[in-house]
């Protein structure tokens, strides 16, 4: 019996040519708000660059400053609008590759450290029904707390999340595409891994 092929793509820097978190910040906030926010967050960013605090903690602090208190309906509305902006960031070669895999019957999965909400809308529009990303915490009234509801989907967490969704590893062939150190573990976990090959 022929094994199913699952193809896992990183998003930022792999499917797109730039980071969507920064692009989403610019999409949802004025230049004045961005400047004031990053000035206040400068100590966090310096500590991250120096390796004092990890990637996920710095990212969560930035996310909290800009989105804590937003209602999820407002946030998701902006995520849906943002898909048109993402289209401008997508590598044509990545789009062609995804189309080829889908036409060949492979299951295409996006595995990204980006927030799942804006990935979801772009993936739905492009025929990708499985998205694994960083989840955000929502309180009982529907407001964003600013905390992440999952681990940042980066490094080993990409393998953990993919394995949780598709646990029978021997039953499928895994191909994976990435572009950074956050994809290293996923690339090594795959039967065929491709770093910076799009």
Task: Explain what you see.
By secondary structure, the protein is an alpha/beta fold. It has one domain (4-195): 3-Layer(aba) Sandwich (Rossmann fold). It is 48% helix and 20% strand. It has helices at residues 20-28, 31-40, 42-49, 55-67, 72-89, 92-103, 116-125, 156-165, 184-189, and strands spanning 4-9, 107-115, 130-134, 136-138, 144-148, 172-178, 192-195. A hairpin with a 5-residue loop joins strand 4 (136-138) and strand 5 (144-148). Helix 1 (20-28) crosses helix 5, helix 3 (42-49) runs antiparallel to helix 4 and helix 5 (72-89) crosses helix 7. The model has no long low-confidence stretch (mean pLDDT 95).
Q: Rg, please?
A: 17 Å
Strand content: 15-25%
Q: Which class best fits the helix and strand makeup?
A: alpha/beta
Determine the CATH topology: Rossmann fold
Q: Would you identify the CATH architecture? A: 3-Layer(aba) Sandwich
Label the overall shape: globular
First CA to last CA: what distance?
A: 30 Å
Instruction: Count the DSSP helices.
Output: 9
Estimate the helix proportion, in percent.
Answer: 40-55%
| Helix-strand pattern | EHHHHHHEHEEEHEHE
Number-wise, the strands total: 7
The CATH class turns out to be: Alpha Beta
- The chain-level mean pLDDT equals 95
Largest sheet: 5 strands, parallel
Determine the CATH superfamily.
HAD superfamily/HAD-like
* Total domains: 1
| Model regions low in confidence, pLDDT < 50 over at least 5 residues | none
The strands making up the biggest β-sheet line up spatially as 3-2-1-6-7
């Amino acid at each position: 019996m022929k094994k199913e092929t699952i193809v896992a793509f990183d998003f930022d820097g792999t499917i797109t040519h730039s980071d969507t978190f920064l692009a989403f910040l610019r999409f949802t906030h004025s230049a004045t708000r961005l400047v004031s926010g990053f000035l206040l967050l400068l100590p966090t960013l310096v500590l991250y660059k120096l390796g004092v605090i990890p990637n996920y903690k710095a990212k969560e602090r930035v996310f909290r400053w800009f989105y804590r208190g937003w209602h999820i309906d407002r946030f998701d509305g902006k995520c849906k609008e943002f898909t048109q902006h993402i289209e401008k960031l997508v590598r044509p070669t990545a789009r062609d590759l995804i189309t080829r895999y889908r036409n060949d019957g492979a299951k295409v999965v996006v595995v990204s450290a980006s927030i799942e909400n804006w990935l979801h809308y772009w993936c739905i529009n492009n025929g990708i029904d499985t998205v694994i990303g960083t989840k955000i915490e929502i309180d009982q009234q529907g407001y964003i707390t600013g905390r992440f509801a999952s681990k940042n989907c980066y490094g080993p967490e990409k393998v953990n999340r993919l394995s949780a969704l598709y646990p029978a590893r021997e039953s499928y062939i895994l191909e994976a595409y990435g572009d950074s150190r956050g994809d290293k573990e996923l690339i090594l976990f795959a039967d065929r891994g491709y770093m910076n090959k799009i």
